Amino acid sequence: MSYAEIDTVKRELLVRYLEAWVPAALHRARRVIYAHGYADADGGAAAEAAMRVLAEQSDLVRGRELAMVATGDDLGAISERLSAIQEQSGAGAGLAVHTISGGTDGRLPVGLKAIGAQRVPVLGFLDASGTGSPPAPATVAALTAGKPAEVILVLPAGASTDSLRTGWPLFTSVELAVSDEPGELLAFGTTAGKSLEGFKEALWSVDEFAGVRYRDPGDPDRHLIDISLTPHPGPLRRELLAHLEQVGEATVTELRTFALTETVYRAADATRVLHGLVDAGTVARRPSHGRLGGDVVIALA
Q1: Which residue in 19, 24, 31, 23 sits closest to 68, CA to CA?
Q2: Helices (H), strands (E): how many in the chain?
Q3: Exposed e or buried b for every residue in 166-203, given b needs 16+ CB within 10 A?
Q4: Which residue, of 9, 43, 80, 197, has the greatest Cβ tally within 10 A?
Q5: Which strands make up the sheet holding 283-286, listed edge to edge?
Q6: How many angstroms separate the CA atoms of 3 and 259, rounded?
Q7: What is the pLDDT of residues 1-55, one digit of tens each?
Q8: What is the pLDDT of residues 109-152, one digit of tens each?
Q9: Are 79 and 40 in contact (CB under 8 A)?
Q10: What is the pTM of this model?
Q11: CATH architecture of 4-225
């Protein structure tokens, strides 16, 4: 098992999310910015994949402005390849690429400010997994200038996200695991609830690659979860029961929100698990009959 499969999963997730994000962002605003940090960390493969997605939106770009700013230690050759993709797209001046060498922590905040990333849709992708340390908090926080703002982070195994959450009201993370050892930490921060739902859909929609599985950082049993449109419910079941033990009772809506924001799962997965817990008599519901709607109160039996 090599880590090439993990890189493939990360690229596919990025591509899937970008394919949904770009049209929605261009529909919302006339200017849209995508920021790609550590663009040379993987030889430029992820940055090129992202640029191809942007180029495929050439019809939507006309009359609007879609910009990519890429930073890294040395982007000489990568800059040429990104520019070639841009020129071949036929999008003209509406699609722009800005590459800045000299390091992501030192250059990304400056680059975002220079191209006017304030109060326009911004998505950042920062894969720092190969650097040995997370991005500087100021680098991640610089992306919050966008409106709305979103960031996909990849951190080295064992890294903490505590210092990187500032400015992100919604934040979630998942391990990319290949063994029982801690895996790379994939995190997502956003200022919009719909974006979190969209990220979770992309997370579970990627193709399964041999040996690569997810692990919920909040699961005390560290259960490995196969990548699937209908993921194994075990970790979510344990986390919902632990949450109910802590809070006493909660509505279905509150438990769906807990699953979406505090676990690797989607809100719909919580509904599926709650139906099973009610049927098994593990939890009690109030009222005791009828549809399991959002206002139904759930407590441990």
Answers
A1: 31
A2: 10, 12
A3: ebbebbbbbbbbbeeeebbbbbbbbbeeebbbbbbebb
A4: 9
A5: 249-251, 297-300, 283-286
A6: 29
A7: 457 889 999 999 999 999 999 999 999 999 999 999 999 989 999 999 999 999 9
A8: 999 999 999 999 999 999 999 998 999 999 999 999 999 999 99
A9: no
A10: 0.92
A11: 3-Layer(aba) Sandwich (3.40)
Please check whether residue 51 is in contact with residue 68, taking contact to mean a CB–CB distance below 8 angstroms.
Answer: yes
Q: Locate tokens 């709650």: which residue?
A: 274
Q: Quick one: which H or E segment has residue 149?
A: strand 149-155
Neighbours of 300 (CB within 10 A): 12
Mean pLDDT of 276-280: 97
What is the per-residue burial (b if ≥16 Cβ within 10 Å, else e) of 212-233? bbbbbbbbeeeebbebeeebeb
pLDDT at 178: 85
User: Per-domain residue ranges for the chain?
Assistant: 4-225, 234-300
CATH of 234-300 given 1.10.10.10, 3.20.20.20, 1.10.287.370, 1.10.287.1080: 1.10.10.10
**Measured distance CA(300)–CA(204) in Å, rounded:** 29
- Cβ atoms of 126 and 111 closer than 8 Å: no
